[in-house]
Amino acid sequence: QVQLVESGGGLVQAGGSLRLSCRAPENIFRVVAMGWYRQAPGKERELVARITTDGRTMYVDSVKGRFTISRDNGKNTVYLQLNNLKPEDTAVYYCNAGGSLWSRGAIWGQGTQVTVSS
To answer: Which residues lie below 8 Å from residue 30, measured CB to CB, with a gap of 6+?
Structure first.
């Protein structure tokens, strides 16, 4: 079973920043798009951002200008920089591997909690 190892969540005040990391096995990371999704209590899991192997990115409108997705191919790791956090960003954030720039893959991480206090 493919494992995606996430880290970087936590509790932060509104306006603060966090950086999430997701490390994937090398044989997977080098050939697939990666993405971040989030799920707030009582809500559906939703797309946050995605990145292809050649660095093309896309973001959901609510995070544009605040979040940045990037990938380090040498470390087999995808990052999500979260700036100017808002209470409505509070959710469990999940790493996703596979798919394309516009579609999710089949591999998920265990999730990391991000809590933003007002």
So the answer is: 53, 73, 76
